[in-house]
Write a structure and sequence with these properties.
The structure holds 2 protein chains of 2 kinds.
Chain A (H helix, E strand, L loop, with lengths): L1 E5 L9 H13 L3 E4 L8 H7 L1 H18 L3 E3 L2 H16 L1 H11 L9 E3 H17 L8 E4 L9 H4 L9 H8 L3 E2 L13 H4 L1 H17 L4 E4 L2 H8 L2 H8 L7 E3 H8 L17 H6 L4
Parallel strand pairs in A: 1-2, 1-3, 3-4, 5-6, 5-7, 7-8
Chain B lengths: L8 H14 L11 H5 L10 H9 L3 H5 L3 H4 L5 H5 L6 H15 L6 H16 L4 H12 L8 H6 L14 H12 L5
The chains are: A alpha/beta, B mainly alpha.
Chain lengths: 289, 186
């Protein structure tokens, strides 16, 4: 299996461990990733808040490059994944915009490149049964809250990712490891996302609700698929603890880090040392490492 | 008591403008307020998304474009997902942010600054270089010490790079920004 890989800005900075872990897991599973040549930022939230053309043209630049190379695109950041699928949808349905974008880029892009999230590559491309066979280290009994956030799922008419109100694909991946995905209310509630910088107060409030529900329902760890969700829940967790006068100490791992542990990949290669809330004590206690 | 001027030419123009830019039929909103009920940021909005929809239907440009609602909307798309009339409410919010910026209305100080420094950073490097993006945000917003303690935590874990990863063909990025700045756009 071979994919054109779009890392996006976060996976080269605040989410280097997501990049490291997915590369280690893909290598182990025989998935080849070719980084899209000279990729640029997808524009994220600010682009669509400021200019529609820019919000479509920026992802289209990367997609047009990938189309020439000929493989499906694999994205891991939920925000990049969202912007790329929205750009494909807009280009395929708005002829005038498609013309404008292609003129500016000097391309002939039709919105047709298939964009897959890492979860889709693992669940549909490789398959749950195959993954089960590859597990060498079971995480039996570890209680994990699978947190999907917003952008993987919404808008459902464009994303076609999973059930928008009760997704289960990440839960199924976590189950492969022997860990137990808990049932909880905040799977798809927003963490505040890009408000993290300008309105940190909103992020504190929303993350407080997410962390509280996960903790109340017995989660020992949160699994995420988005760098924004991860840094809001992990980096800002100590501030939320102060706001709510409550201790959470919930490690927030990328789902692929959890999977990597079960595939026998070491903690260092999975970038577990990069996380702010240290997962090592929990994993040691559970006999995982 | 607020007095709303309805049916004026300015009100009609605003309604048409929002409909054209957002591609949404505003009259389809029958005010069930499901958008507001599910909105995670509604608690800090001066007007809920449902009231914004109503005021846009009535062409109340200034009320809508000066509200903080459009800036504290986190673009989580819950409203769009749940609208029983299939209105893309989040797209209307995007349209209102674009119009507020174009027409010089201020509803929030900091979010537009974040958007501005983010896109300036993207334009300069082709990819986001967090250290200078965050520094510019702190300077421009005058929140000089914002997250001052988070920076080192990230840096020493190798989560903040020392140098930007620049795009090779920066001219192609500049072309997109120039086009977005000038001429008629979608």
């Amino acid at each position: 299996m071979r994919y054109a890989y779009y890392p996006g800005c976060s996976l080269k900075s605040v989410a280097v461990e997501y990049d490291a872990a997915l590369k280690a897991v893909c290598e182990k599973l025989g998935v080849t990733l070719d980084e899209i040549d000279d990729w640029a930022c997808c524009g994220a939230t600010p682009a669509h808040a400021v200019d529609r053309f820019l919000s479509v043209a920026l992802p289209a630049r990367n997609l047009a490059t990938a189309q020439k190379a000929g493989n499906d695109v694999m994205v891991a950041c939920a925000a990049c994944y969202n912007r790329m699928k929205v750009a494909n949808h807009e280009i395929a349905t708005d002829g005038a915009l498609r013309k404008e974008v292609n003129e500016a880029l000097g391309t002939d892009y039709d919105g047709g490149v298939k964009v897959l999230h890492l979860i889709e590559v693992l669940v549909n491309g490789i398959g749950i049964d195959k993954l089960k066979e590859r597990v060498t280290k079971r995480l039996d009994g570890l209680k994990v809250a699978c947190y999907y956030g917003c952008l993987l799922l919404r808008p459902p008419k464009v994303m076609h990712f999973d059930d928008p109100e009760n997704p289960t694909s990440m839960d199924r991946l976590i189950e492969v490891t022997g860990a137990v995905p808990i049932s909880w209310e905040f799977k798809t509630e927003c963490c505040g996302a890009a408000m993290g910088i300008a309105r940190t107060d909103i992020v504190h409030k929303l993350c407080g609700r997410i962390l509280s529900d996960a903790k109340n329902r017995g989660a020992e760890m949160i699994a995420v698929a988005c760098p924004l969700c991860q840094s809001n829940l992990d980096l800002r967790q100590s501030d939320v603890e102060k706001d709510l006068s409550r201790e959470f100490r919930l490690p927030v791992l990328y789902f692929v880090q959890v999977l990597g542990l079960a595939l026998g990949i070491d903690a260092k290669s999975l970038g577990l040392d990069k996380l702010i809330v240290d997962p090592i004590p929990l994993l040691t206690q559970k006999g995982v490492i | 008591m607020d007095v709303l001027n309805l049916g004026t030419k300015a009100a009609e123009d605003f309604i048409r403008e929002v409909e054209k830019l957002s591609g949404q039929k505003l009259a389809n909103c029958y005010q069930c307020h499901k958008c507001t009920a599910g909105c995670p940021a509604a608690y800090t909005m001066d007007l809920g998304p449902g009231r914004i929809m109503r005021l846009v239907q009535l062409g109340q440009e200034e009320r809508v474009l000066t509200s903080n609602t459009i800036w504290v909307c986190a673009s989580c798309l819950t409203c769009t997902t749940r609208c029983p009339q299939e209105i893309d409410v989040a797209r209307v919010m995007d349209t209102l942010r674009i119009l507020a910026r174009k027409k010089g209305f201020k509803g929030d100080k900091d979010v537009p600054i974040f958007n501005e420094v983010f896109l300036a950073n993207l334009r300069a490097h082709g990819r986001i270089f967090e250290p200078t993006m965050l520094a510019w945000y702190n300077l421009k917003s005058r929140h000089f010490l914002k997250d001052a303690l988070k920076g080192p935590v990230m840096f020493f874990r190798g989560k903040l790079p020392m140098f930007p990863h620049e795009v090779r063909e920066k001219a192609s990025i500049e072309r997109l920004f120039s086009k977005a700045e000038g001429g008629e756009k979608k």
